[in-house]
Amino acid sequence: MKVGKLNWDDLKSIIDENRGYKREDVRIRSSIGEDCSVINFGDYECILSTDPITGAESGIGKLAVHINCNDIASSGVEPVGILVTILAPENTTLDQIKQVMKEIHEETQKLNVEILGGHTEITTAVNRIIVSCTAIGKGLKETAVATAGAKVGDDIVVTKQLGMEGTAIIVNDYYDTAREILSASEIEEAKNYVEELSVVKEGIISGKFGVNSMHDITEGGVLGALWEVAKASNVGFRVYKDKMPISEATNKLCNKYEIDVLRFISSGSMLITTDNGEALAKKLKTKGINAAIVGNITNDKGILIENQVEIEVEPPERDELFSLQEKINKFTR
């Protein structure tokens, strides 16, 4: 099997055939594109999500916090706690584990999130440190936003810049090759993307604004996120590549290594659908968050318009991140 997420059809069949017991107090259940489950607790509801870090080597503690808390934020609520599992190979030092936990500690402090517990183990089952977290959020009853809420006619809004996480991984894990492509200022900018990977702020703002759906843009990039929102909501979409917010540093790296930036891991950006994209974008910008309307939700298939050509969007496969090493090797021989 290929490295990366299971493809859409395989994952759907596994989920559909293995749902376990169905409880009445679960309001939103796991499904394709639905990163959070929501449990009713009377006047409040609990929002839960889990994810590992497998595609990066540097800053994995920081990434683990943000990708999980971002899932909670995509429900429009604030994350309150996180559970941490660390699996490390035999050659790991105590200082390396301490560094991962230091990163987790520092990032959770910034987000007002408590570390609730977890598990740490040295094992021959892995060949590098793997961090997997479960994040927990809390919201008033019936307030959590589902991925599956997109409606025909909605504007599609994307926050910040696409590909920030992938760009930061290239610059940090492949610095010597990146500096041959980017200027010193672009290198510094790309390194700083790791400080912009949280979408908690825009998630909470958008939740209070009243949007129809949200999905943080991670593996599979913006096209993967769009596909998942469309499938979960039983709708289509029409988006424009020239409206996608992409930095010059990200463009340079993706062009050099033949990476599809629209399918490149993009933590730090939120995909939002709403019936008033202009008002939401304006609201976000007043809070210091860049937001762009990149298209709209339709009742048909998913279409990307590039250079005035309509391209039907295929189901997401593995993220470009997982072929990064071979792409870089191709151009550095």
Uncertain runs with pLDDT below 50, 5 residues or more?
none
What share of residues are in beta strands? 25-35%
What is the H/E order?
A: HEEEHEHEEEHHHHEHEHEHEEEH
Rg from alpha-carbon coordinates: 19 Å
The DSSP helix count reads: 11
**What name does CATH use for the topology of the largest domain?**
Phosphoribosyl-aminoimidazole Synthetase, Chain A, domain 2
Q: Give average pLDDT, whole number.
A: 92
- Give helix % range: 25-40%
Task: Label the overall shape.
Answer: globular
Largest sheet features: 7 strands, mixed
Q: Which architecture name of the largest domain does CATH use?
A: Alpha-Beta Complex
How many structural domains are formed by the residues?
Answer: 2
**What structural class do the secondary elements suggest?**
alpha+beta
Specify the CATH homologous superfamily of the largest domain.
PurM-like C-terminal domain
CATH C-level name of the largest domain: Alpha Beta
Strand order in space, largest sheet: 8-10-7-11-9-12-13
Terminal CA distance: 27 Å
Number of β-strand runs: 13
Domain PurM-like N-terminal: 33-137
Organism: Clostridium omnivorum
Family: Belongs to the HypE family.
Domain PurM-like C-terminal: 151-302
Structure description:
- The chain has 333 residues and is α+β, with helices and mostly antiparallel strands.
- The chain folds into 2 domains: 8-140, 60s Ribosomal Protein L30, Chain: A; 147-332, Alpha-Beta Complex (Phosphoribosyl-aminoimidazole Synthetase, Chain A, domain 2), CATH 3.90.650.10.
- Helices cover 35% and strands 26% of the residues.
- The protein has 11 helices and 13 strands.
- It has a 7-stranded mixed sheet, sandwiched between helices.
- α2 packs parallel to α7 (200-209).
- The longest helix has 18 residues, at 94-111.
- It starts with 7 loop residues before the first helix and ends with a helix.
